[in-house]
């Protein structure tokens, strides 16, 4: 059996020019990056075109068994493209840090992949590097301002803007910097986040154009003064320089699937610490250029799904026409209590135990008033009985479920699913948001916790309560909420699988992101800088003299 | 008067495809990065072509007055291209950190510029970002190995591999990392260098192909064990992954001048801390594809010049056919004792005082047995008498000197210089290296200090002496020497302008770079991480809604 990277390396790649032609782009509307990647530099000229149908793919809570959400997204896109050539896929960009840590790409798998997969998983078109560069330039400018007489009266103990690298590096989580004497800065505590956790990443994925991006960057709160007034990038006067560093990163990237379906990959915030969806611009561009757009949101419906629907939809100005929830027999069996090495045996009882996880996501997504479909991503060991069990369960929610073999067959394995999705997009839809912008923070939090997670409610730490009081002075308490929560459970405890009940969500603290325009609620012990495992993937990656990469996935 | 960036933005840019055609590349031999940049993916198939003439441009010791070495290199290239269309220019890539600090580009100026200048000075084709990424991935893997049971017995107090960012950030020079408790690494002292100072940058500019790069990376010494044995990347087993991260960065970048002269820009080590020249591959590629190649080495003849001739030439397998030394009336007047605000007044006496600086470089470069030419880069305030004074002085060394107005006129301002250079390349040349590989380190150091700098000799600190003894065990004491020295003076004291005498060079410590294959001798107080000034350039940079950048240069 070929590995993902071997399948990708064997693929026939169309010149990106041919893909650009296919979606009707003029040469002035895109720029090549190699022969197989491009950036679309479209302005607002297509704004009034009729928009395509939007299909949002999410999943149950992920497990170690793997759900293959990206693989289903790609396979479904390829299947839809067979029905209507004007189909596009819109995904997030992978983060390089985890690529060197754990194996597992973000470009699909098997015969449902986006290519060139190695490039996309490595540096791609440099968007994340531009973000890292802008992020650390801002950090250096803050410390330089403190060092050069501190005209903004920044309290070095209250600098909020950390540094960032796209590397899994736990040793950089907490650091003391500015050491080495009077010519090397002012000593203070600091730390590094992974680049995808940067507020600049959130801004990149939300900005509608360069000026919108600049205004958002100006609003970033970087520190408090000694008398506890917020200091912003506008005060520092460097939003123009930072926007200049992101002038190319703002443009969506165009690539193709193995079946040559045009695919936009742009922006990559994680859904457990930020909004977890690809860029507003890329999704909008795809909607302008095609009849069907398949996009995904990170992790489960509780994280990426809720954020897409409550936060991205208002900015996008377009609601999804269908929501696809990806589930697998294997993952549901893990939710039902099995260990990873017990998944090969048929076990309908365990599956039935785990179905409650799917159930919670089905109810919470149906609540938004958009047609819902279940995609069962088939694995070799799945039995007919197990597959039917999931179908029957979904039927109890009046939701159709389709089995798809996208890993082994690509788009051909998702024909039924595609037909079901097309049917769903033509059903009546009445989008109902979960909360209104005017809701108090605590009400927003409770609605998310109760309706989406199935929790009793939320509990705020003393710090979080104090913060909300202080934020009210600046109106920050009215911002949309972005939950930072473990992806593995509906609760804030990664060990509680299935559909836990009788639990409360604990909000440890809030992080205001004024440029992105949201308030992050930190729950549990979510980390913003991952570490590497005992045997990092980097130890298995190698390259030949002809540039052939091995061991990447 | 238009600024550099305004001139660059007004320029007619040829599609890079047309430039690639001009130098005879097949479509399989290059890849586009936007419509105006490319990477040449040439293998060794042109290795046996007759090589072009190699012209090395260096300068006197730089001053605050500016010498315009890159501007002369570009103007000379454009002038030579008028005589022989098969002319190419080979430059280094600018570092982004300083771009946000002090104004001053690395792509020439006025009407002698390489374009697209903003892109080249910002992220270009991502080479430096790939280096930053690989550098910090290695750092994370080292700390992870220590954290995960430390199987290589690395002494955390003796980790030699620091972290790196392409940002001027003095606060990161010295840091304590691994703080925050047992799940966040092992606490230790660390620090960040600017990316150009990374050994990976040196390796990138020296590698002949991917396998050579991988072997060099394997040899990097990253730490000592508790029993003081060197630990290398090969021991860690991640050279394949790091080479994979540099698979695109290894290829030279193709751009054009305002006059459409094909220009390779690749690699960017500083000459005051590393070898200070562009990549061996780029220079070789240019020599294979053209009849005249104009390249430059960083800072004065003492730094970039010596390193090019003693270190790069053996790897290149080709000696320069002519050495051009750039001097200006203004800079020589500063070497003669004037302050920056006194340069507008004619002052032949001060100029004569400063000529000794040019004189030292003339003697030291003539010593290599290659024809030498002086290029006087003309500024508006220069008087005829001042220009003639330099010519007369050069004549005393039997060296022709030509006035060039490259900033104001581009290649048309360097016609005479080009004719003189062509004449020089046809003169007999008998390249004589300064030292032999077998020379002891102390002998190499003394030869460089005495012959090139005009010093009495070198003095080693106690630490440096101990290091040499220890290094002898591993044969490292026989490596070529790379001096880390201030660029402003022939001595190791940046305040001693002109041609100081009666001085000694103080070697503080050695840094072995086994992957690059050299031993760095640290003199004076050279920093490997710059800081930002009181008013950083970032505060003046801005971008319009149509993407027009202002204030970059």
UniProtKB/TrEMBL annotation, chains A, B:
Keywords annotated in UniProt:
ATP-binding, Ligase, Nucleotide-binding, One-carbon metabolism
Catalytically driven reaction(s)? (6S)-5,6,7,8-tetrahydrofolate + formate + ATP = (6R)-10-formyltetrahydrofolate + ADP + phosphate
Amino-acid positions noted as binding ATP in the UniProt annotation, renumbered to this chain: 63-70
Transmembrane portions of the chain? none
Pathways per UniProt: One-carbon metabolism; tetrahydrofolate interconversion
Endoplasmic reticulum among keywords: no
Q: Does the keyword Ligase apply?
A: yes
The EC number of this protein is 6.3.4.3
HAMAP family for this protein: FTHFS (MF_01543)
What name has this protein been given in UniProt? Formate--tetrahydrofolate ligase
Give the source species: Weissella viridescens (Lactobacillus viridescens)
């Amino acid at each position: 059996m070929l590995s993902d990277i071997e399948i990708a390396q064997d693929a026939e790649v169309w010149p990106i020019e041919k893909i650009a032609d296919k979606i009707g782009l003029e040469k002035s509307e895109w720029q090549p990056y190699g022969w197989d990647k491009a950036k679309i530099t479209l302005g607002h000229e297509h704004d009034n075109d009729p928009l395509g149908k939007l299909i949002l793919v999410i999943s149950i809570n992920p497990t170690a068994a793997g759900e293959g959400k990206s693989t289903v997204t790609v396979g479904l896109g390829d299947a839809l493209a067979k029905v209507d050539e004007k189909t596009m896929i819109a995904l997030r960009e992978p983060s390089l840090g985890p690529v060197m840590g754990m194996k597992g790409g973000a470009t699909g798998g098997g015969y449902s992949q986006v290519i060139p997969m190695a490039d996309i998983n490595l540096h791609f078109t440099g968007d994340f590097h531009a973000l890292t560069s802008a992020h650390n330039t801002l950090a250096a400018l803050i410390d330089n301002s403190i060092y050069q007489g501190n005209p903004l009266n920044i309290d070095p103990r209250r600098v909020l803007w950390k540094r960032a690298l796209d590397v899994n590096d736990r040793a950089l989580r907490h650091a003391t910097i500015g050491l080495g004497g009077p010519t090397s800065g002012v000593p203070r505590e600091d730390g590094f986040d992974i680049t995808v956790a940067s507020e600049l990443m959130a801004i990149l994925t939300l900005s509608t154009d360069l000026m919108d991006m600049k205004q958002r960057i100006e609003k970033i709160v970087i520190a408090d003064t000694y008398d506890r007034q917020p200091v912003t990038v506008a005060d520092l006067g460097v939003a123009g320089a930072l926007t200049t560093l992101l002038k190319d990163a703002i443009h969506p990237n165009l690539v193709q699937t193995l079946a040559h379906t045009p695919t936009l990959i742009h922006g990559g915030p994680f859904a457990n610490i930020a909004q977890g969806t690809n860029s507003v611009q890329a999704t909008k561009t795809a909607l302008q250029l095609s009849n069907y757009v398949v996009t995904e949101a990170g992790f489960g419906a509780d994280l990426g799904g809720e954020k897409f629907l409550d936060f991205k939809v208002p900015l996008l100005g377009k609601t999804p026409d269908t929501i696809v929830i990806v589930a697998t027999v294997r993952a549901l069996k893990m939710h039902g209590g099995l260990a990873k090495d017990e998944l090969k045996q048929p076990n309908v009882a365990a599956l039935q135990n785990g179905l409650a996880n799917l159930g919670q996501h089905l109810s919470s997504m149906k609540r938004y008033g958009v047609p819902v479909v279940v995609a069962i991503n088939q694995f070799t060991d799945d039995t007919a009985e197990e597959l039917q069990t999931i179908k029957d369960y979904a039927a109890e929610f009046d939701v159709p479920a389709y089995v798809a073999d996208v890993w082994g067959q690509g788009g051909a394995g998702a024909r039924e699913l595609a037909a079901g999705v097309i049917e769903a997009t033509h059903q009546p839809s009445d989008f109902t948001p979960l909360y209104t912008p005017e809701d108090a923070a605590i009400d927003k939090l409770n609605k998310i916790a109760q309706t989406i997670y199935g929790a009793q409610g939320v509990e705020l730490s003393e710090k979080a309560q104090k913060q909300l009081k202080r934020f009210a002075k600046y109106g920050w308490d009215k911002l949309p909420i972005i939950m930072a929560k473990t992806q593995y459970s509906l609760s804030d405890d990664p060990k509680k699988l299935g559909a836990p009940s009788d639990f409360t969500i604990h909000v440890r603290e809030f992080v205001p992101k004024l440029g992105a325009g949201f308030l992050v609620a930190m729950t549990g012990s979510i980390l913003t800088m991952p570490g590497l495992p005992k045997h990092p993937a980097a130890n298995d990656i190698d390259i030949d003299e002809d540039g052939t990469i091995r061991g990447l996935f």
